[in-house]
Design a protein that fits this description.
Blueprint: E1 8-13, E2 19-25, E3 32-37, H1 45-58, E4 69-74, H2 79-83, H3 106-116, H4 134-145, E5 150-155, E6 160-164, E7 172-173, E8 176-177, H5 188-195, E9 200-204, H6 214-232
């Protein structure tokens, strides 16, 4: 599946020099752009796998979809964590990339949260400063240059659906139901959804090591397409704050 995805070098490198791969699907002059990211945490391997499956599904979009979507799929934002032995949540520098984005008051809040709420959990170290890592800087560049109308970030293993930003959130994707768990200093949902006003759908698969069955993967995809068309498409544009 990885080989058939025909990934392209996105001209970005991880902290340890690994290529960050991706693939665009759809017309580059499409009126709607979606960025799909897996593997922000390297030990959440099912998230990377789901992005590969969805990339394949995007190659044959439904004929009745009113939205002309330009997709950008990045299966593994954190290849250093993925290829560590054993795989680990953090990147090659030991930073949790999902706590490294430049949310307001990051300097005040991020380390306090890490010290008091996580009890200095090394798996959740936010770094010495925001966007200190090449992987998080690359994702900011994607927001600035690709300019997505929607970001889908895939994680595991909590088995819920989360949402940040404008628009009405999806109530469910497949068997995952909405459970907005709050925001964290430096998280992608906090930074992109709350402060940059880009809708962010965060998927938490039930298992980090096992992908749902094919029918469930497809149902989640169809639910995402349906919600995107209904809530973010042309007919909804007048109502989105």
């Amino acid at each position: 599946m990885c080989e058939s995805a025909a990934l392209q070098d996105l001209k970005a490198r991880s902290g340890q020099g690994r290529v960050i791969w991706g693939r665009d699907v759809g017309s580059t002059d499409a009126n709607f752009k979606v960025l799909v990211i897996g593997g922000i945490h390297g030990d959440e391997m099912s998230s990377t796998s789901l992005v590969y499956h969805w990339l394949g599904l995007a190659m044959t979009p439904p004929s009745d979809s009113p939205l002309n979507i330009h997709w950008r799929f990045i299966p593994s934002l954190n290849p250093d964590g993925l290829f560590a032995k054993p795989a680990r949540r953090t990147n090659g520098n030991g930073v949790d990339l999902n706590r490294n984005f430049p949310t307001p008051n990051w300097a005040r809040d991020a380390k306090v949260y890490w010290e008091q709420r996580t009890k200095r959990d090394p798996r959740r170290w936010p770094g010495n400063k925001p966007v200190s890592e090449p992987e998080s800087r690359f994702l900011l560049e994607q927001m600035d240059n690709f300019k997505p109308n929607l970001i889908v970030s895939v994680h595991a293993p909590y088995g819920v659906l989360d949402f940040d930003g404008p628009s009405v959130p999806p109530s469910k994707l497949g068997r995952l139901y909405l459970d907005q768990v709050g925001i964290f200093p430096g998280s992608l949902g906090n930074y992109a959804g709350v402060h940059r006003r880009i809708p962010v759908v965060t998927i938490e698969l039930p298992s980090a090591g096992r992908l749902p069955q094919d029918a469930e993967v497809r149902q989640m995809w169809m639910d995402l397409l349906r919600w995107t068309n209904d809530r973010l498409g042309p007919s909804a544009s007048a109502t989105v704050p």
